[in-house]
Amino acid sequence: MYTMKQACKLTNLPYETLKFYCNEGLIPNIKRDKNNYRVFDERNIRWINNMQCLKRCGMGIKEMKDYLKLCLEGQPTIPARMEMLAKHRKELLAKINELNENLAYLDYKNEFYQNVLDGKIPYKSDLIRTDS
Question: Given 31, 75, 100, 114, which is the most exposed site by the fewest CB atoms within 10 A?
Answer without folding.
Answer: 75
